[in-house]
Design goal:
Elements (H helix, E strand, L loop, with lengths): L9 H12 L17 E7 L11 H8 L3 E7 L5 H10 L3 H4 L20 H7 L3 E6 L19 E5 L10 E5 L2 E5 L11 H16 L6 E6 L49 H4 L6 H34 L6 E7 L19 H4 L3 E4 L7 E8 L2 H10 L12 H6 L9 E4 L10 E6 L2 E6 L4 E5 L17 H14 L9
């Protein structure tokens, strides 16, 4: 079961106590009831790395400046489908068994959908909707299917999910295709259409008494599948109004970009060539496209917040903004991608706003996407039907010391298909990785923040490696409270 120490946020609890102790002011007049359970909004971008937050000024202001930014947030598996399954179940991948984007290791059909966040919240009296991308492979077998727990449904149908135009949305059991992939109709840009569904939902649900869960999942800044970046075009394509907004933006590079010496890295990385001028130009173009595509996401966040405020519900709404994984763009010679345990891939943005959450705070507590479900059931006073592995972010926002010394698991296997995999542990200053090939990586992120020198063979860190290996072995089979 999740950490329940902060079942009701501190601010709400204080109001409830004050109401209970207030004197009766007239015959038969009772004290005011405790505030209603909060609405819940989860906004999950796709492939958004921490540096991409630079293209989201409204999000940083409306959520970050009025909430808490977690600066050490990671995902349990830096890949779309397993990560989103963790959000829905609150479990590490070795517990929810979604170990890839497609069969036999993973994909939508691998998820046990009868015990997920929307199911638990529906049982607790919440109205629920999901809008946008779901799990990889959703809709391939049945584009009319509505997964369990969702009262309203506007999920994009694969494989069209990965198109900014010409995509299909299952609208409450009725699939509809919006435009053509090769015609950039400004009125049918995917992010904007999803935003319209989200604001309409808030407009209809906010005036009602029962609380709601809005799960909003735009595609950006994930690339479009089947759309070539040629002749100066963009991939992903931004909304037409944003084209060129970052047309001259430089590619942010760190010392790990096109890493000169990868002799300490696993064979998979050692085999990568240096990044030449042509590759660098492609990476730069992708970077600019990603930033431009995020501007519509930023506007969508602002629109959702504005609708909540207009209905007087903003103060009683918990809003989470995050991503399913990070993104590599040239670091360690990896031209583009995720999955790796390196910081750029496994670290993600995480911002929390809502009742009881400190405003304008930056919280260095170690957090993971296993904490998302714990946060939602905490705020909703709901009961999950399975053990969940995370902690409430509301509790961690109020008391960061709870996460002191916390060990986070990042894993991609073992997989039934026998594909290469790794298991990693992220704690304090160290990142330690064990690969199925037998290779190891160990980084001291205080002295080596860009992971340029693996010290897995360094005698000076032999005791550290041994301790981390032992803890990693425990985490790889942990469940519920044993996950720490």
């Amino acid at each position: 079961m999740p950490n329940r120490r902060a079942r009701v946020p501190v601010a709400l609890a204080a109001l409830a106590v004050a109401a209970a102790l207030a004197p009766v002011t007239a015959a038969g007049a009772a004290a005011q009831p405790a505030p209603a359970r909060p609405n819940l909004v989860v906004i999950m971008a796709d492939d958004l790395d921490v540096s991409g937050m630079s293209a989201l000024p409204r999000t940083r202001e409306l959520l970050g400046a009025n909430g808490t930014t977690f600066s050490n947030s990671f995902v349990s598996y830096p890949l779309c489908c397993p990560s989103r399954a963790t959000y829905l179940t609150g479990q590490y991948p070795h517990n929810h068994d979604v170990m890839g984007n497609s069969p036999p290791d993973g994909g939508y059909e691998q998820l046990r959908g009868d015990e997920t966040v929307p199911v638990w919240l529906s049982r607790a009296g919440y109205r629920t909707t999901h809008i946008g991308k779901y799990l990889n492979g959703y809709g391939v077998n049945d584009p009319t299917e509505i997964p369990p727990g969702w009262g309203e449904w506007h999920g994009t149908v694969d494989p069209t999910t990965y198109r900014m135009w010409g995509y299909t949305i299952n609208n409450n059991g009725v699939p509809r295709t919006y435009g053509r992939q090769d015609v950039e109709d400004p009125a049918l840009y995917q992010t904007d259409v999803l935003r319209a569904f989200a604001t309409d939902y808030v407009n209809r649900m906010a005036p009602q008494a029962a609380p709601f869960l809005l799960s909003f999942a735009p595609l950006a800044p994930h690339s479009e599948v089947g759309w070539a970046s040629v002749n100066g075009d963009r991939n992903p394509r931004p909304a037409p109004r944003h084209r060129g907004a970052y047309g001259t933006a430089p590619l942010p590079t760190t010392p790990s970009f096109d890493e000169a010496d990868v002799s300490d890295k696993p064979a998979q990385v050692r085999a990568l060539p240096r990044i030449d001028a042509g590759s660098r130009a492609e990476i730069t173009q992708d970077h600019r496209s990603r930033l431009e595509s995020l501007l519509a996401v930023d506007e969508a966040v602002a629109a959702i917040v504005a609708r909540l405020a207009a209905h007087g519900e903003l103060a009683n709404t918990v809003i989470v903004f995050t991503s399913d994984n990070g993104w590599l763009q040239g670091e360690h010679r990896i031209p583009r991608g995720k999955i790796f345990a390196y910081e750029e891939s496994a670290r993600v943005p995480l911002v929390l706003r809502g009742p009881g959450v400190p405003a304008g705070a930056v919280n260095a507590a170690f957090t993971s996407n296993v904490d998302l479900a714990a946060t939602l059931v905490d705020a909703a006073d709901a009961t999950p039907g399975i053990p969940i592995d995370g902690r409430s972010l509301i509790s961690l926002a109020q008391d960061p010391g709870q996460a002191t010394g916390r060990h986070l698991l990042i894993e991609t296997g073992p997989k039934p298909s026998g594909n290469p995999w790794y298991a990693a542990i992220r704690v304090g200053r160290y990142s330690y990785v064990e690969h199925s090939s037998g290779e190891r990586e160990l980084y001291d992120l205080v002295t080596d923040p860009y992971q340029l020198r693996s010290r897995h063979d360094d005698p000076a860190l032999a005791a550290v490696r041994s301790a981390l290996a032992a803890r990693l072995a425990t985490l790889r089979s942990c469940a519920g409270n044993t996950c720490g």
